Amino acid sequence: MTTTPTSATPTRTIDGTTVPAVGTWEIDPGHTDLAFIGRHFMVTKVRGRFTGVEGAVTIAENMADSRVDVTIDMASVESGSDVRDEHIRSAELFDVATYPTATFRSTHVDWRGDRGTVTGDLTIHGVTRQVPLDVSFEGYVRDPWGGDRAMFAARTRINREDFGITWNVALEAGGLLVSKEVNIEIDLETVLARA
Description:
Blueprint: E1 3-4, E2 11-14, E3 17-20, E4 23-27, E5 33-40, E6 44-50, E7 53-59, E8 67-73, E9 77-78, H1 82-89, E10 101-112, E11 115-124, E12 127-142, E13 148-159, E14 181-192
Antiparallel strand pairs: 1-2, 2-3, 4-7, 4-14, 5-6, 5-14, 6-9, 7-8, 8-10, 10-11, 11-12, 12-13, 13-14
Domain Lipid/polyisoprenoid-binding YceI-like: 24-191
Pfam families: YceI
Protein name: Polyisoprenoid-binding protein YceI
């Protein structure tokens, strides 16, 4: 592996691929979209998102040694319906009064070029499971105020029942009101922390 030294710049080149420089890249909640997509009546896609997201991506010299730490405010869920959001927050689903946050802590990074798999402990509803995220580095910009920003995208699929979120209603014609499988899509904008 060949690395182009770029200590004074926010990116570097490894084996011909541009990646973020070593450092702590803090999540910008206002420009991050953490979404989940389930199905209603087993057909219609319903999309929700969390606006309360904080944490950081810590990029190491060796990309495999990098870390991701994220905390999600579960009460910040928005799905486009106040009634549905209140139900999602209730004890039947997320139970935010008992489990106000969810977390993701990476345990292993397998990185090649500008993408990789970040595996970590996802804790939702008080239950922790190992979850792999397919992650890509989407690019870098310098903002008008001199901040260095790196963008990442991540995708995975989970079964919500694995996390103890089991509420559902059986449909008369067969199937369930709400899908067990949930897709998670993340578009993450980060800002390089200044020493």
